[in-house]
Each structure stands twice: as C-alpha cells, then as structure tokens.
Design brief:
Keywords: Cytoplasm
Helix content: over 70%
Number of strands: 0
Main location: cytoplasm
Protein name: TLN1 protein
Pfam family, one: VBS
Shape: rod-shaped
Strand content: under 5%
GO molecular function: actin filament binding; integrin binding
Structural class: mainly alpha
Largest sheet: none
Number of domains: 2
CATH superfamily of the largest domain: Alpha-catenin/vinculin-like
Number of helices: 6
Length: 160
C-alpha cells in the first residue's frame, strides 16, 4: 500500500513537470493516476480490515477517501489545462491541486504506520525470545558435552 501511495506521489510530480513542458501528456498521466488510486483503494480495504483496531482502520479509509477528492480535482484541472495550455490561471490551479494531493498522499503511509506499532512490538519481542532460545540451546549443547564446570558429581543428563 505504501508502494502504491509513493507511485501516486511520483505521478503527481510528473504532472507538475508536464504541465509546463508538455501539457499534451497530462491525459496519459491522469489515466495512470486513476489506475494507481484504484489499486490503492483495493489495498485499503484489506489494510482497514486487518488494522490493529477499528480507529486505525477508520483513519486509513478516511485519508484514502480524502485523497480521491484531491485526485479527482487534479484530473479535472489537468483536462482543463490540456484544453488551454497557455492559460496561466488554469496552470496555477492545477499546481495547487498537485500540492493538495501530495499532502494527502503523505498521510496514507502515516496512518498505516500507526497501525503497525503493535506489529512492530510483536516482531521485537519475537526477536528477543529467539535470542533467549538460542542462548539456551547453546547452554544445553555445552552442558551435554560436559564442558560446563561441575559443582558436584551429578551430570546434566541426570537433571535433564
């Protein structure tokens, strides 16, 4: 999902560039933006369902819904700029729309990261437990080999 959000950000930046250098290509980029948003919306459904809690799922959906409004306005402005590429006011409006979309697209990964805090905590704990298990395995191996100092005549096998 983060990868798709980044792809949207890249496409928006390309639209800014093409608005001044080659407005004829804005239609292709608008179509690409629409496809990327469609993919993000599909990924959002899964992310919201698997979120740590309902509030995080709500925030993820909220920012993706906010993003669609910005994308729709941007596509509309891109179409208007294609119709009149020399209109400075339309160009200014389109660039303002790209800024709004960029701002909104940056909030999507932030919402996802809020949902990953619990997952990250579990990964940290699992790593610590794995380290403890490895230490225990090493201790058992040395004890079975008889290389640990014996305080009395008992063997590890007796205690195992």
């Amino acid at each position: 999902m983060v990868k798709t959000a980044k792809a949207i950000a890249v496409t928006v930046q390309e639209m800014v560039t093409k608005s001044t250098t080659n407005p004829d290509e804005l239609g292709i980029l608008a179509s690409q933006l629409t496809n990327e948003y469609r993919k993000l919306a599909q990924e959002t459904k899964l992310a919201a369902l698997t979120a740590e809690n309902k509030e995080i799922g709500f925030h993820i959906k909220h920012w993706v819904q906010e993003l669609v409004h910005g994308c729709a306005a941007l596509v509309t402005k891109a179409g208007a700029l294609q119709c009149s590429p020399s209109d400075a006011y339309t160009k200014k409006e389109m660039i303002e729309s790209t800024h709004k979309v960029s701002e909104k697209v940056s909030r999507v990964p932030a919402a996802l990261q809020a949902g990953n805090r619990g997952t990250q905590a579990c990964i940290t704990v699992a790593s610590a437990v794995s380290g403890i298990i490895a230490d225990l395995d090493a201790t058992i191996m040395f004890a079975m080999a008889g290389t640990l100092n014996q305080e009395n005549s008992e063997t590890f096998t007796d205690h195992r």
